[in-house]
Amino acid sequence: MNIQVAPEHKLSSVAPLKECNAEKREVELILVKDQNGVQYTSSSIIPSPGHLVGPPGCTDEERETWGKKIDFLLSVIGFAVDLANVWRFPYLCYKNGGGAFLIPYILFLVIAGMPLFYMELALGQYNREGAATIWKICPIFKGVGYTVIIIALYVGFYYNVIIAWSLYYLFSSMSTELPWLHCNNPWNSPNCTDPKLLNGSVIGNGTAYAKYKITPAAEYYERGVLHLHQSRGINDLGLPRWELTLCLVIVVFILYFSLWKGVKSSGKVVYITATMPYVVLFVLLIRGITLPGSMDGIRAYLHIDFKRLKNLEVWIDAATQIFYSLGAGFGVLIAFASYNKFDNNCYRGENNEPHDTKEKKRKRNLRDRAGLVFIIYPEAISTLPGSTFWAIVFFIMLLTLGIDSSMGGMEAVITGLSDDFKFLKRNRKVFTFATAFGTFLIALCCITNGGIYVLTLLDKYAAGTSILFAVLIEAIGVSWFYGVDRFSEDIERMMGFKPGLYWRLCWKFVSPAFLLFIVIASAVKSTGLKYDDYVFPNWANIVGWGVAMSSMMFVPGYAIYKFCSVKGTFKQVSECVCVCVC
User: What is the DSSP code (8-state) at residue 483?
Assistant: First the structure.
């Protein structure tokens, strides 16, 4: 018996669907009539309930995406090239042997920095989830997601303060004469001395402000801005300074209105905040290399001291700086990439190695990087013709760098938690305000008379050993439990090609081994806190390690919770582990 299908109901094959929320459908054939021995049928397409096809992470709710690819690229660049590249990298480079420091730095960049940078972008884009819920790929590791979220939150506490300082300096620069030019100000001490009288310029002979803290720029920073002379130590903080409080309020409001609507709003802000620093740095570079003796300064800065490579601290500093330079480990790259379209090529053009070639000369005992940015730089700027203009330009650059950094960290917190707790996503504006306001309250401790001591504590412990530990567990979870082969197949599904052998070897062997060594070394070599000549009390170091452990404990804590939530025999617990391993 012949079966004839009406022409208007012919079936055709279709290409695999890539869009989220596309329903998996079935074809239903219905016999409509039987005439003269010939059966006619009608076909209809019906949905198969509960089945969706598309990339993992697709849900009934459509996920927000970047307006344009350039929004994502600028956001990543803006976060990666941040304040750490201005106040941390130059200081570490000169302290640790100048050009010799670049040897471990570039080595670690190749074997760990870039592979982990690529890994986080691919993880976020494929799964389209924040730092916590992305671990649906291996639920027992979800604790590391909470760890990086907490670290990003802690860093935001004191990064916002540095931005507030930049804003304060910006306002102070809007005058006919810069306030750190001379010693005739109310905040100056009787010992204030012109730097030219201190055996030459403080910058010209490489003498650090840590040795001569009586220059106008040094006294403006510590006495005029911080009022550090009114505090005896971390146990004598005092009240928040009202001028810095107002600057901090402005910073928090800028962050809130940049993030409250998600990547649609933050993606537009970065057009200014991510590009302006490059314009300013280029202008300052041209101005700097035209100054007399600039080449001598660059040679002194990059002088190679190979003896420093024998010091383990140099290698630890280089490893830690990698994560500050690229932004891996803070959950920010995962959050940014999760708003990409599924087939976006996140591999292309993601080499964000920072450029920090500026003529700066510093003493190696300069311990606080804030002194570099808010003392040495302003003093250098004050020697230039048109110093008021250059000061305004420089602190606008610092402001935009800081805003980029803080926006990225806060987005990691908001995305990571709102993906895990859907009621937060439905109330994003309220949650964003609560997060911004919470960071404001904690940051108030850092703008008191002794606030620099709190900032120093957070700078050392909030994202030191803890960030290395988090990235180590992240690398192990993806490479050994989820599997490099499966991860490579995910990337192939997105971009049409598998990662090369270099990436897969680094993910599985080189990067985890490197991170394990650095985590152990950083914990063993850890010393007590100091700020210049002030030695922190023992209880402050205990509090600092408490801060570090409070984020790291989420890794074993959540793993224990997952084990305990499995009720039944040991066999069932073993099966739960095998789900992740296999």
Answer: I
DSSP string, 163-226: HHHHHHHHHHHSSSS-TTSSS-STT--TT---GGGTTS-TTTT---TTT-TTSHHHHIIIIIIS
Give the predicted TM-score (pTM) of the model. Answer: 0.80
244/485 Cα distance (integer angstroms): 51
User: What confidence tens digit (pLDDT) does each residue in 375-431 have?
Assistant: 878 888 887 788 899 899 889 988 988 888 898 899 999 999 999 999 999 999 999
Q: Is 158:439 a contact under the CB 8 Å cutoff?
A: no
Is 249 assigned a ligand-binding role in the annotation? no
| Tokens standing for residue 442 | 């904690």
Buried b (16+ CB within 10 A) or exposed e, 59-82: eeeebebbeeeebbbbbbbbbbbb
Report whether pLDDT(47) > 70.
Answer: no
Residue type, 404: D
Contact (Cβ atoms closer than 8 angstroms) between residue 120 and residue 332: no
Residue type, 32: V
368 is in an annotated binding site: no
- In three-state secondary structure terms, 246 is helix
Letter string b/e over residues 342-355, b meaning 16 or more CB atoms within 10 A of that residue's CB = bebebeeebebebe
457 is in an annotated binding site: no
Residue 448, C-beta contacts closer than 8 angstroms, at least 6 positions apart = 231, 237, 238, 239, 240, 241, 454
Cα–Cα distance for residue pair 350/129, rounded to 1 Å: 20
Hey, what amino acid is at 250?
Answer: I
User: Which of 232, 76, 228, 209 shows the shortest CA–CA distance to 165?
Assistant: 228
Burial of residue 262, with CB atoms counted within 10 A of its CB: 0-12 exposed, 13-18 middle, 19 or more buried: buried
Q: Which two tokens stand for residue 56?
A: 């993992």
At which residue do the structure tokens 């950083």 appear?
A: 522
CA distance 261 to 429: 7
Average pLDDT over residues 468-487: 94
Q: Which residues pair with 120 in a beta bridge?
A: none
C-alpha span between 80 and 91 (Å, rounded): 18
| 401 annotated among ligand-binding-site residues | yes
452 within 8 A of 370, measured Cβ to Cβ: yes
User: What are the backbone angles phi and psi of residue 534, rounded to the nearest 5°?
Assistant: -85, 125
Query: Is 405 labelled a binding residue?
Result: yes
Q: Establish whether 80 is an annotated binding residue.
A: yes
State yes or no: 12 annotated in a binding site.
Answer: no
- The answer to whether 406 is a known ligand-binding residue is no
Which domains, from first to last, does the chain contain?
69-193+212-578 (1.20.1740)
pLDDT band at 27 (very low <50, low <70, confident <90, very high): very low
Q: What's the farthest any 2 CA atoms get from each other in the chain?
A: 116
Our separate counts of H helices and E strands in the chain read 25, 5
